[in-house]
Design goal:
Radius of gyration: 21 Å
Mean pLDDT: 80
Protein name: Transmembrane amino acid transporter protein-domain-containing protein
Strand content: under 5%
Pfam family, one: Aa_trans
Transmembrane segments: 44-62, 74-96, 117-139, 159-176, 183-206, 226-245, 257-280, 300-325, 346-366, 372-391, 403-426
Biased composition (Basic and acidic residues): 1-11
Number of strands: 0
Order of helices and strands: HHHHHHHHHHHHHH
Structural class: mainly alpha
Organism: Phascolomyces articulosus
Number of helices: 14
Helix content: 55-70%
Length: 441
């Protein structure tokens, strides 16, 4: 089902523990308010979509965030999980607060809540993540392949591997028209990432005796909190695709269960990997964490699995971006005809992949890109905008004081990550270029 259908719907309400009773099944999807969900995917498909994307973003950088912040970083991870779960639930409620239709994107929610300026600001943050994260993933995939092919004819450089991966990802990206079409690949992506985590934890345990007394641990490293916050914000949720994934569900009343169970699964894996990684490698831990483990077949397997994962996860983001923009541009079969619609859509998506490739070869720094994306964009998408939208569209005075206090804490968390995390990430990026970094061509 194409989520662009959601543009033609009329208003109602959604179930949640914080709002009114849920509508009856006969009203949900049949009253004209909701989109046509007759061919929608199951809650399990939605769960795998979210888990695939969230695991990929968080698993790679969170152990390094604990290294930056000390053991206190674990508290930040747990707090981000609770806040991310809350923001995912209230974001769905916000989708159903439109005056005449379901609000199908961050831009529409911004338009409804704060006018055109609010809509374009929301769209800017969303686009930063939907395009920036595939760039980050393709940079990682290129570096991994070049590393695996070291000493062989396949060691062609990160520049060329980035181009190759852009072509591999770009071909199916042109043809995918809905989030449901990539649900199975999301399942595969989630399995590959879980495999990577298990291999890394086992290797870390085996390697632990070699690092006893050689590494340092800190309870709290205050100066490292801004970068840690930005990385944790990057891993706190998949809000950027929530609207499209929710729109592809057959039964949207299961959304709160889907989003909370997905983030809880990721949280358990995050904590296990972060604790093991920092305990064994301490101040010597590197990002991604599997590069801290000993060389050998198991580490190669982990690199292969995570490479498969990030390549599978890229279309989740790119398709979500394309669906939003193509809907804004009214690129539909009804308006253009089947052949012309495909040509216009293919041209737009090809141009998107070219942009992704150019940025990827110009800024091939995985760890710096992760911090920058998390601080500047995901902190707004996960912590700031959902609360502001919810308060504006659902009301402020009608909420109990404890919920308002929690919402204020979520806003504070996001603002600190946005301001101080962005500052630290930009400083790291400038320093990397100033030190004369050169990538292999």
């Amino acid at each position: 089902m194409n989520t662009s259908d959601s543009k033609h719907e009329k208003a109602g309400s959604i179930s949640s523990s914080f709002s009114s009773d849920p509508p009856q099944d006969t009203e949900f999807g049949k009253s004209g308010y909701d989109i046509d969900r007759s061919n929608g995917g199951s809650a399990l498909y939605a769960y795998f979509n979210l888990t695939c994307l969230t695991l990929g973003t968080g698993m790679l950088g969170l152990p390094a965030s604990v290294k930056n912040a000390g053991w206190g970083g674990l508290a930040l991870i747990i707090l981000a999980w609770l806040m991310g779960s809350y923001s995912g639930i209230i974001l769905q409620r916000t989708m159903y607060k439109g005056k005449t239709r379901r609000l199908a994107s961050y831009k529409e929610m911004g338009d409804e809540a704060f006018g055109k300026i609010g809509g374009w600001i929301s769209f800017f943050f969303l686009t930063w993540m939907l395009i920036g994260t595939p760039i980050l993933y393709l940079v990682l995939a290129a570096a991994n392949l070049n590393q695996l092919c070291a000493g062989t004819a396949g060691e062609i450089g990160t520049f060329k591997w980035t181009i190759v991966w852009c072509v591999i990802v770009g071909i199916p990206y042109i043809f995918i028209k809905s989030m449901k079409e990539i649900a199975l690949s999301s399942l595969i992506g989630a399995v590959t990432m879980i495999g990577t985590v298990l291999i890394t934890i086992v290797l870390t345990g085996i390697d632990a005796p070699n690092h006893v007394g050689t590494v340092q641990h800190e309870n709290v490293i205050w100066e490292g909190f801004p970068v840690a916050l930005s990385t944790i914000a990057y891993a706190a949720g998949s809000n950027l695709i929530y609207a499209n994934v929710e729109g592809s569900m057959k039964n949207p009343k299961k959304w709160p269960i889907v989003v909370v169970s997905s983030l809880t699964t990721c949280e358990a894996i995050y904590l296990a990997l972060s604790i093991c990684g920092y305990y064994v490698y301490g101040d010597k831990l590197v990002n991604p964490v599997y590069n801290s483990t000993p060389d050998g077949p198991a580490r190669i397997a982990a690199i292969v699995l995570v490479t498969l994962h990030v390549v599978i996860a890229c279309p989740l983001l790119l398709v979500s971006f394309a669906l939003d923009v193509e809907d804004m541009m009214n690129i539909t079969v009804e308006r253009l005809g089947k052949k012309k619609e495909f040509l216009v859509r293919a041209g737009f998506r090809t141009a998107t992949m070219i942009f992704v490739a150019v940025i990827g070869v110009v800024i091939p720094f995985f760890d710096v890109l992760m911090s920058l994306l998390g601080a500047f964009s995901n902190s707004a998408l996960v912590f700031i905008l959902p609360v502001l939208f919810y308060w504006k569209l659902d009301g402020f005075r009608n909420k109990p004081i404890y919920e308002l206090a929690w919402g204020a804490l979520v806003l504070l968390y996001g603002l600190v990550a946005l301001i101080f995390g962005t500052w630290a990430a930009v400083d790291d990026l400038v320093s990397t270029f100033a030190n004369g970094y050169h990538y292999q061509i």
